[in-house]
Amino acid sequence: MQLINESKSKKTVNKKNLKAALTLATTALLGSVQVSATPTSVAAEEDTWSFDSAFLYYSEADRVSAAEAVFNAKKTYSDDSILNLKLTVDALTGASANGAVAQPDVQTFTRPSGKGDYEIKAGETPLDDTFHDTRVQLNAQWTQALAPNVTGSVGGHLSKEYDYLSLGINGNIAYDFNKKNSTISFGLSHFQDTFTPEGGLPKPFASMPLAYHDSDDESGHDATRMGSDDDKTTSDIMVGFTQVINRRMVTQFNYSYSVVDGYLTDPFKVLSLLNNQGLAQDYLYENRPDKRTKQSVFAQTKYHFDETILDVSYRYMWDDWEIKSHTVDTRFYIPLGNGSYLEPHLRFYQQGAAQFYQPFLMEDDATPEFASADYRIGEMTAYTVGLKYGMKLADGNDLSFRLEYYRQDPKSAGHKAPGALADMEIYQSIDAIIAQVSYSF
Question: Choosing a second label site near 105 at 20 to 30 A (CA), which of 181, 199, 330, 439?
């Protein structure tokens, strides 16, 4: 999960440099194919390096915490070619919802490895407190002019976690016209991921086995597994258009199409199997389709007032899982003088549920082909509100601080809670704090 906004700290710009500043700030926000949608040629000193670093801490109340460090190095050559290298290291710890619903009695769950178990108190959302992972990610990108008004970019991606390996390549080409006030771009990317979860891949809708210990027979656990690893591929296409409207305003429009194929089930998620009284009789492993096609449209406008800059964007996403989402993101850059600034941030997100989302299963109903109780593919609303403060130091480098509050509110998606669940909080809100420090030199 990438949490850090990688855009460079905004500098105070005069009207003469507004076009270049707004165009660069706009393209920095694009990451759907991990390439700049509108590479822009900028007059460069000979073979210069610039560096960006950031540290972010994300913490959900009583749940997941993440610490992430990013170091980005960019070398601009005398012919305006650009080499960009980025290293990301993050660590996640805490408790993650396992998909089961709260119950009026204590619940016992087997850990994903099959070795050992954990208990959840009555009335509480089941959380697996052994959730932890460390990720190291490397990205490299090369951008250069291919012809007058044509810029190309190619890149590679490597990401490694304890149980996950991701490899990717990408490419982009952009054409400037209309006196460089208009840019159209086309990008492709492809990723190959391998998942080797602890405990193996559970069979769809298999019952959670009893835990075993060092001297116990593991055959019960093994009988619920169908292998130790699986793959998935992701292919993305993006078409973008950027237009400078006038000396104050620039707009951007993107369309992206993505196909994900392979193992898309979360092997750590289960569903509660309930009787008519709403009491859990079993816990079944989830099952999702092995293919997902996603599409999205994105529009963004930046407007430069006499001193301030307003940045507003909207994204609409839909897929063949019947998930639809709307995202509105607004930032307002306010210079304070001497190179310092404030940037309030407000983001709103609304999502509909996947067609196979079910918060629980009923034992009297037939087992569906696909089902998942993962709140991340359920109906929800979320918002982020925060403030960033940046400054230019005496040596000319940039330092900024960001503090934000995030809240996510899952919904029932029309599923009526039976019996004992009527008194349970099964759609628990999530509150989180995001703190970030960035330094550019």
Answer: 199
